[in-house]
């Protein structure tokens, strides 16, 4: 983050605000990958019925939601400085990402409301699949849908980035993916500790 604030040149049309790009886009990528990863874990759970895979899916969804909040926080700041409005209701990518966030919230709400462990894992698995579909549609919003809003096209489809911007962008992509991995491992370890604690309490009672 410090590198992105100090190294690349400033785009004159946006000023310093364009440097949010080096946070916003990589974090959005991870927020979209996370539900897909969770859906793969959920599919394995539906096949094996082993709680380990449900815990992995839950952990992945947790971190995905954290990164999605980062996107919702940084996006309006960048949009207001670049477009003059914090939220463009005509933009397909923004609306689809908002739907993804609602899907993630519904995952946690239903998981919290269902008390039975096996039923909770089963319903969560199907919700993970819906969240993954929402993530894929969000990824494809600027590729498959006629997009009348202000949101730019795919970064990978553009060859116009200067070398300093390109270096900073890919360094940010790698960094936030490592951050996702670290948070994932810590959160999953915490899940195992909580499960072990609950098992001990059940034995004692």
TrEMBL record:
Predominant location: membrane
Transmembrane regions: 20-47, 63-83, 95-114, 126-145, 167-188
Pfam families per record: Cytochrom_C_asm
Similarity field: Belongs to the CcmC/CycZ/HelC family.
Function: Required for the export of heme to the periplasm for the biogenesis of c-type cytochromes.
Domain Cytochrome c assembly protein: 7-144
Record PANTHER family: CYTOCHROME B_B6 PROTEIN-RELATED, HEME EXPORTER PROTEIN C
Keywords: Cytochrome c-type biogenesis, Membrane, Transmembrane, Transmembrane helix
UniProt keyword annotation of Transmembrane helix present: yes
Domain of life: Bacteria
Cell compartments where the protein resides: Membrane
Membrane topology: Multi-pass membrane protein
Name the record gives this protein: Heme exporter protein C
């Amino acid at each position: 983050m410090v590198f992105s604030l100090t190294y690349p040149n400033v785009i004159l049309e946006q000023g310093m605000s364009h440097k949010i790009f080096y946070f916003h886009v990589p974090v959005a990528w991870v927020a979209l990958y996370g539900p897909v990863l969770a859906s793969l874990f959920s599919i394995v759970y539906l096949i094996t019925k082993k709680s380990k895979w449900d815990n992995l899916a839950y952990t992945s969804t947790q971190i995905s939601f954290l990164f999605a909040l980062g996107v919702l926080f940084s996006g309006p700041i960048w949009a207001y400085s670049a477009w003059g409005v914090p939220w463009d209701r005509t933009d397909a990518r923004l609306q689809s990402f908002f739907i993804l966030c609602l899907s993630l919230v519904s995952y946690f709400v239903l998981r919290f409301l269902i008390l039975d462990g096996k039923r909770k894992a089963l319903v969560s698995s199907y919700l993970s699949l819906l969240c993954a579909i929402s993530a894929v549609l969000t990824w494809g919003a600027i590729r498959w849908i006629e997009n009348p809003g202000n949101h730019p096209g795919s970064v990978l489809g553009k060859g116009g980035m200067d070398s300093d911007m390109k270096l900073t962008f890919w360094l940010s992509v790698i960094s936030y993916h490592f951050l996702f991995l670290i948070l994932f491992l810590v959160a999953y370890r915490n899940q195992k500790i909580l499960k072990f604690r609950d098992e001990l309490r059940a034995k004692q009672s």
